[in-house]
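ok so i was messing around last nite and threw this chain in just to see what happens. nothing serious, just curious
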Amino acid sequence: MAHEQTQKITAHIPVNLLHEAQAATGKGITDTIKIALTQLAHAGAYEALRNMRGKVTFSIDLEDLRKDR
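result:
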C-alpha cells in the first residue's frame, strides 16, 4: 500500500455516535472515520448515478449476451 499524506485532527464527536459507527464497522476510531469520510466523498457520484436511472438505453440484447458465455 502506498503511503498517503495524512493530517492529524481533533474533532468533538458525540460519544454514542462514534460507538454506534464503530459497532457498524467493527473497526477502530481512525478506520471508522476514514470509512465515513470516503462514503461522504463518494455520495455525489452515487447520487449522479441514481439520477441517471431509467435515462440510459442499452442496445445490447440480453439473450445474445447469454449466448456469448
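not much to say yet. The helical segments are 15-25, 29-52, 62-67.
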